[in-house]
């Protein structure tokens, strides 16, 4: 995110295009140690994608077959980039629905939502078909479900120390070292994981 866009975000008081980082005071276990990319934030509420919780027991090729994007026999022919797309638990809302966060080098008219600083969101099968053909975006992740907040809810959670936030970057969103994203996000705002409450860590 550029300084100009960050200033714009701060002036509005909204966090579109930024990362939420679960704070030690986070009461909701579903979001413990989570890092969330905020896709939309306004007076009407907020919506984001958790980028550091892998979906259990399913790969991107498996999902393409399950959704009838490709037949099972074609999995072996998928382009290498498709095999590298991570499948994540995007949040507790609409967990059967897929949302693709991706770089802005791919766009579908009336389907793709530009968010900020070269990051877009597309939630149609067309992008999955494009990735399977090798003509999709350079960077992408597939999230099952999303995180949502009612009007004023996210602001309240931030004020009660439920969330910290930092600027987004491509590595935090698309990086393959998913387990390290939480610590990296904290370091971006000058917080060492060791400074946090011991209740947050796991032996």
Q: Give the name of the CATH superfamily.
A: VC0467-like
Low-confidence segments, ≥5 residues, pLDDT <50?
Answer: 1-11, 198-203
**Number of helical runs?**
7
In the CATH scheme, the class would be Alpha Beta
Shape from CA axes?
globular
How much of the sequence lies in strands comes to 25-35%
- The sequence of SSEs as H and E is HEEEHHEEEEHEHEHH
Write down how many β-strands occur, each being a DSSP E stretch of 2 or more residues. Answer: 9
Fraction of helical residues? 10-25%
Summary?
The radius of gyration is 17 Å and the shape is globular. It has helices spanning 3-12, 60-66, 80-83, 125-133, 153-159, 170-174, 181-188; strands spanning 18-22, 35-42, 45-50, 86-89, 93-103, 112-116, 119-122, 140-149, 163-167.
Structure write-up:
The chain has helices at residues 3-12, 60-66, 80-83, 125-133, 153-159, 170-174, 181-188; strands spanning 18-22, 35-42, 45-50, 86-89, 93-103, 112-116, 119-122, 140-149, 163-167. By secondary structure, it is α+β, with helices and mostly antiparallel strands. It has a single domain (3-195), classed as VC0467-like, CATH 3.40.1740. Strands 1, 2, 3, 4, 5, 6, 7, 8 and 9 form a 9-stranded mixed β-sheet that branches. A hairpin with a 2-residue loop joins strand 6 (112-116) and strand 7.
């Amino acid at each position: 995110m550029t300084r100009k866009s960050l200033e714009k975000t701060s002036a509005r008081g909204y966090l579109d295009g930024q990362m939420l980082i679960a704070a030690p005071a986070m009461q909701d276990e579903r979001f413990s140690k989570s890092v969330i990319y905020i896709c939309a934030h306004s007076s009407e509420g907020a919506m984001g994608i958790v980028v550091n919780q892998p979906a259990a027991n399913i790969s991107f090729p498996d999902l393409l077959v399950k959704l009838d994007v490709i037949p099972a026999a074609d999995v072996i022919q998928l382009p290498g980039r498709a095999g590298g797309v991570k499948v994540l638990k995007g949040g507790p809302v609409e967990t059967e629905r897929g949302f693709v966060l991706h770089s802005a080098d791919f766009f579908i008219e009336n389907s793709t939502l530009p968010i900020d600083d070269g990051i877009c969101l597309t939630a149609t099968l067309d992008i999955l078909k494009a990735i399977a053909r090798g003509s999709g975006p350079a960077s992408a992740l597939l999230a099952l479900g999303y995180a949502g907040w009612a009007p004023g809810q996210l602001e309240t959670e931030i004020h009660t120390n439920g969330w910290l936030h930092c600027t987004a970057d491509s590595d935090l969103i698309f990086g393959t070292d998913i387990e390290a994203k939480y610590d990296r996000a904290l370091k971006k705002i000058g917080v060492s994981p060791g400074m946090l409450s011991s209740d947050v860590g796991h032996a």
